[in-house]
Q: What sequence folds into this?
């Protein structure tokens, strides 16, 4: 049974998302000594609330898996959260700015999982063997905390800032690539703002999925066949404004775009 205080944290963060309102971080308001275990418990309650409302999980996601993100956010340990069906935006579609608080965009490589992956002890090579396809993605993160100001445990409780995702249309077999060498650019209004390669994500994006499998194993859970999983941003995230046209280009995996309306 979750304690009252953990329920309060989940309610606080769900309300902030629904009301599109930034809030002061949990470790400054509700629970200064929030532990990693309690933070994932709060995240679990938040996820359950969404499931109870009829939303469906697309897959877990990894975050804070590159040096660029660690430097940008001041938090340097990988975390996971969950992407839901209501968060999906079509490639080339519109992100309604008024739906969110202070969205930022990230370029990521996603994995469509072909077979269950159960930790502990999973390696990147094992992940690749169980990956049906890889595809490019843009994640739109929208921390519910003011100024994206949070600690490791705050961001875990906030479902790892997960908000919207645009998947690309090009699905390729992972064996066709050296994913760590896949270059990516992130542009706004035709100007390249960030660039990097798959290796920025824990040396190889499949390593991020392996870390996820091993983290889920601590709770007796696994990565499931059919899930589509973001491996974490390759570069730092870019703050979005109304009217922006955002494009992520990935070598061999095509382009993913959306406009901010
Ligand atoms: C946390 C979420 C990070 C990623 O890809 O690193 C994330 C944040 O930066 O607000 O999704
Ligand atoms: Mg991300």
A:
């Amino acid at each position: 049974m979750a304690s009252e205080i953990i329920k309060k944290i989940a309610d606080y963060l769900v309300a902030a998302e629904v009301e599109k309102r930034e809030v002061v971080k949990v470790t400054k308001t509700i629970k200064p000594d929030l532990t990693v275990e309690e933070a994932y418990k709060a995240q679990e309650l938040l996820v359950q609330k969404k499931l109870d409302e009829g939303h469906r999980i697309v897959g877990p996601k990894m975050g804070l898996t590159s040096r660029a993100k660690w430097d940008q956010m001041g938090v340097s340990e990988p975390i996971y959260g969950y992407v839901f069906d209501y968060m999906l935006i079509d490639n080339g579609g519109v992100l309604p700015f008024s739906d969110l608080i202070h969205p930022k965009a990230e370029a990521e490589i996603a994995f469509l999982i072909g077979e269950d992956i159960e930790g502990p002890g999973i390696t990147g090579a094992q992940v690749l063997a169980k990956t049906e396809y890889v595809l490019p993605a843009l994640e739109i993160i929208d921390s519910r905390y003011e100024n994206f100001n949070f600690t490791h445990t705050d961001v875990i409780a906030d479902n790892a800032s997960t908000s919207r995702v645009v998947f690309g249309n090009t699905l390729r077999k992972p064996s066709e690539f050296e994913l760590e060498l896949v270059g990516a650019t992130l542009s706004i209004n035709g100007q390249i703002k960030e660039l990097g390669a798959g290796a920025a994500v824990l040396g190889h994006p499949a390593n991020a999925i392996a870390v996820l499998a091993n983290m889920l194993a601590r709770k007796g859970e696994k990565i499931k066949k059919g899930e589509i999983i973001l491996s974490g941003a390759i570069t730092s995230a870019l703050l979005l404004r109304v009217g922006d046209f955002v494009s992520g280009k990935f070598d061999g995996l095509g382009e993913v775009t959306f406009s901010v309306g």
User: Anything to note?
Assistant: Residues 57-260 form a domain with the Fumarylacetoacetate hydrolase; domain 2 fold (CATH 3.90.850.10). The chain has one domain: 57-260. Residues 63, 106, 108, 139, 141, 230, 232-233 surround magnesium ion (ligand 2) (CB under 6 Å).
